[in-house]
Write a structure and sequence with these properties.
Layout lengths: L2 H6 L3 E7 L13 H20 L2 E7 L2 E2 L9 E11 L3 E11 L7 E13 L16 H25 L11 E7 L13 H20 L4 E10 L8 E11 L4 E10 L7 E13 L5 E2 L9 H17 L9 H11 L20 H5 L6
Antiparallel strand pairs: 1-4, 2-6, 2-8, 3-8, 4-5, 5-6, 7-9, 8-11, 9-10, 10-11, 11-12
Helix pairs in contact: 2-4, 3-5
Amino acid sequence: MSTPELKQRPHSVTLRFLAAPTDVDVTGIVPAGSVLEWVDKAAYAAAVGWSSSYCVTAYVGNIHFEDPIHSGDLVEVTASVVYTGTSSMHIHTEVSFSDPRELRPVKSSSCLVIFVAVGEDGKPTPVPPFTPGTAKEITMRENALARIEIREQIVASMNDQVYTDEGTAERVTLRFLAAPTDVNWGGKVHGGIVMKWIDDAAELCAARYCQQETVAVFSGGVRFYRPLLIGHLVEVEARLVYTGNKGMHVAVHVRSGDPKTGEMQLTTYCLTVMVTRDETGTAVPVKPWIPVSEEDKRLWQHARDLLAIRANAPGGYTPIHMAKESDKLVHPSPSSRCAGCPPHKMSRLPWPMALTRSGSC
């Protein structure tokens, strides 16, 4: 494909619409699952526009849900291709909203979504290379490249885990048939719909644990292993694996299969962080979850390992409660802290020691 043809090819798409009353959940705000569905649709439009091919969602990176979106807000979801591989497209998405009477946009969330172009045979097909043309596009490409190694570490860590009935933590499983209304443009279940199911299950699991209404503040490592078909039986299993001071970390597995055979296969996996809020909308502390079985302890440490990995990503940070743990290990008392102390680093504390520490997030 010639350079002039590539320059004419759109690499960015913006969806603009009003959040509808039907988009709001029982907490009075648009849930994270709906935001993820919007993100997936915008990213899909950008991927198709660039590749001129049908595309499938492969991965959704870390997305933090900041200010809540309400019914009637004017929402903008912008998706831009920032890097291309052989058949993959790394797409930066940003969600913002505003009161339509004021038009002062507020950023709600952003993340990186990876789509893969597929041909009529269902196999990956090459996409045109994207060359950044501005300083901002170059920076976004570099951020996407920097996240590749981080993502590989996250996927490897998640793949190493085994979940069995030996776990004692709060767990819920939703079961239903994938409906015709869940279909995407390729005849399979839309990736955004799957992420909405994930949010529903994580919210229920966290609510049962803390006995209060909960909302998602983060979803990460959403990995799509295989397509989910219309009419298949779907199981969405959510299990609590870790608590910080305020966050409840919930691992979610989505499985599906032919209801006539009962054989289920893993289709999607991710980890979501939920919080509960006070009447002002501020996240409040939750009771700590104490691991009991060996599996509990292993998954508890796994959640901390993921936090440590993500802290090294562009824009990543160390959660306050873990930074304080590291600080206490390095400096047992305030008087012993040196003036030239280096920044906090993530610590891999044995689970009993870490449980005795406290933090504020």
